[in-house]
Specification:
The protein has helices at residues 56-66, 72-80; strands at residues 4-11, 17-26, 29-32, 47-54. The protein is α+β, with helices and mostly antiparallel strands. The longest helix has 11 residues, at 56-66. The protein binds zinc ion (ZN).
């Protein structure tokens, strides 16, 4: 059981979407990491939140729905639980 939740944000200029790892703090709140999972996007860049504070299962479903606009590196993390990611 992990406390990790996910936030999906779309970059305003490119429309590219990246996932951010976040730590659940309260029922409907979470604290995001500064950088996206792939490291390409910063939380402070102009972006639109697609969803926030979703657990892994729900994040997978919603990313599948959104499709290929979601960064593949970020998505693969969802399916690998971070294994071998630090490269
Ligand atoms: Zn990414």
């Amino acid at each position: 059981m992990s406390q990790n939740v996910y936030i999906l944000r779309a970059h305003e200029d490119s429309g590219e979407m990246h996932l951010f790892l976040a730590l659940k703090t309260q029922e409907d709140e979470c604290r995001s990491q500064q950088k996206s999972i792939c490291g390409k996007m910063d939380i402070e860049e102009d972006s639109i939140t697609i969803f926030s504070c979703q657990p892994e299962n729900s994040a997978r479903k919603q990313c599948a729905k959104v499709g290929k606009q979601v960064c593949s590196k970020c998505v693969s993390y969802l399916y690998n639980n971070g294994i071998d990611f630090e490269k």
